[in-house]
Amino acid sequence: MTQEQYLPLAGRRAIVTGAGRGIGRSIALALAEAGATVGVTARSAEELEQLVSEIKAKGRESLAVCCDVTDPEQVRSMAQTLQAGLGGVDILVNNAGNAGSHKFVDHPDELWHRMLTINLTSVYYVCKALTPTFIEQRGGRIINIASIASRVGDRYIAAYTASKHGVLGLTRALAAELLPYNVTVNAICPGYVDTPMTDGNVRNMMTLTGKSEEQVRDFLAKTSPQKRLIAPEEVAGLAVYLAQDIAKGVTGQAINLDGGGVMS
Ligand code: NDP
Fold it and tell me: Superkingdom of the source (predicted)?
């Protein structure tokens, strides 16, 4: 056996949504480092192409397909193309998502529908497109990047919170339904992670509060008992664990990764 064949995900094929930057990019790279072939998807081609080059430089195969995960037709086509290109799929990471905030009085309906569609309905579409393969092959891993907002409520993020609570509901229902087929379905629930999405949140909060970037970042860090933002690589490490054979007993779970803020 070569050294490569000893890697925990050698021979596995993964699909990561929202892989162009932030958490999804870290997960795609970490899965590749663990030996997997990785199909990546998002809307921006340039970021995906750069990522594919980096994965290939690690000696793994990789393929990119542009797709808006809120469009069921595009999702079906992306799933077919990536499965054909990778030779199948063993691991699905539903990571694509977005955050938006507004006080509840005068909450824009557009924001409500946008949050539900990008954070929850998209996960439904992608799972629907790939679940038949997992059932047929009697095995697979589905890892949903939810949020600590899946576990608790907070001010000004009603739509985001409802969408991420929904991701947990879908995770648990699917875990129960796919149990007989050796498919595990789990959710990772991070607190604030240092990504471009958080950079955007910081800019919004600066505008709304008149505070400096340093003050806003300090405020976000202090929402965690560890007084720091989570690094995307920490989320990736947990995803790689859940993708492995050793995690076969873990299903239907929501794992908090928030520096100890929520302990249930
Ligand atoms: P980023 O905004 O940094 O990256 C999001 C990725 O998703 C990009 O690659 C983006 O690419 C892609 N994406 C966004 N919309 C779509 C779409 N409609 N179709 C396909 N791809 C899309 O986000 P993060 O890395 O911060 O977040 C990733 C996930 O983690 C999200 O689900 C988020 O809710 C969750 N999360 C994030 C936390 C944080 O503090 N950052 C905390 C807890 C959870 P493109 O725009 O090119 O499509």
Answer: Bacteria
